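Pipeline run #58 for the internal structure catalog. This entry was flagged by the ingest filter as a single-chain record with no existing model, so it goes straight to prediction. Upstream metadata was stripped on purpose; only the residue string is passed forward. Reviewer on rotation: M.T. Logging verbosity set to normal.
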Amino acid sequence: MDLIKYFTFSMIISISSIWGILLNRQNIPIMSMPIESMLLAVNSNFLVFSVSSDDMMGQSFASLVPTVAATKSAIGLAIFVITFRV
């Protein structure tokens, strides 16, 4: 298993999501999409480390990442509704 390919993929996703956050600072709903891709990069790192070290801990952490993403989306939606209340 060539780990460099997976880490390069994760690094490219992280850099593009940082770039997306810096470009979209004024639009909050659009700014949440690069944050989701950062979570995807972290999730792929967890899975690669888990497979390479033959340990289930990374896979269990990777199953918790969608929970964090859902929580972030719910909080972002609540802020959006409060901000633009009619």
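catalog note: Residues 3-83 form a domain with the Helix Hairpins fold (CATH 1.10.287.3510).
catalog note: The chain is about 85% helix and 0% strand.
status: ready for reviewer M.T.
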